[in-house]
Amino acid sequence: SQTIHQWPATLVQPVGSPLSLECTVEGTSNPNLYWYRQAAGRGLQLLFYSVGIGQISSEVPQNLSASRPQDRQFILSSKKLLLSDSGFYLCAWSPGVEVSKTQYFGPGTRLLVL
Amino acid sequence: GEDVEQSLFLSVREGDSSVINCTYTDSSSTYLYWYKQEPGAGLQLLTYIFSNMDMKQDQRLTVLLNKKDKHLSLRIADTQTGDSAIYFCAETPNTGGFKTIFGAGTRLFVKA
Fold it and tell me: A26-49 pLDDT, tens per residue?
């Protein structure tokens, strides 16, 4: 069966510090991968998605970046965090060939920038 | 453009039915979804409906799709306190891409 992992679960970082959040998927090949941010009490904002290794599409201009160094690994990074980067970051995957495009979400990383 | 709208809050008594409504704008959407998010957790797919269907039932859940009005609803029968969560409506536009558009979520409160 497929599983998706995110770490860390919780992170408190000072403004201006770097960020690296990791997401890995097990039990599937060539998934589509997604990073979302959910601000407190709000909906989901799609940040990046990837349909293959090294292929990243950015949805919102910001100080975040994403990379996909391996088929089932998706990394969200920042060189200098802003206060506004605080939120709940969700990684998701969908089967590359499935017509329904159902997305399966990880447990999330709660980031607090102080 | 693509947009999905939902009311933000719904409060029901335990044992009553809950109906969460959603409207979407992209008439080409092929799949529409309902996801559930419990506090501090990721989203969990509850059910989805293909655009050529009007209704889908799965145990206590009933999804109704009105394509003419671009309206999707989720009915939860015999609502329990464990159903308290945020429910997200989502659509996948039929543009050949991989994006899913999510609503802002409806927070369901179930009173005992």
Answer: 999 999 999 999 987 678 889 999
Q: Note if the bond before A107 is cis, omega within 30 degrees.
A: no
The tokens describing A32, both together, are: 């589509």
Give the best residue of A21, A34, A105 to mutate against chain B (max B CB count within 10 A).
A105
Residue corresponding to tokens 């590359």: A96
Instruction: Give the tokens for residue B30.
Output: 């092929």
Yes or no, beta carbons of B42 and A100 under 8 Å apart: no
Q: How confident is the model over B30-49, as pLDDT tens digits?
A: 789 999 999 889 999 999 99
Say yes or no for a CB contact (<8 Å) between B43 and A92: yes
Number of neighbours of residue A34 by Cβ within 10 angstroms: 28
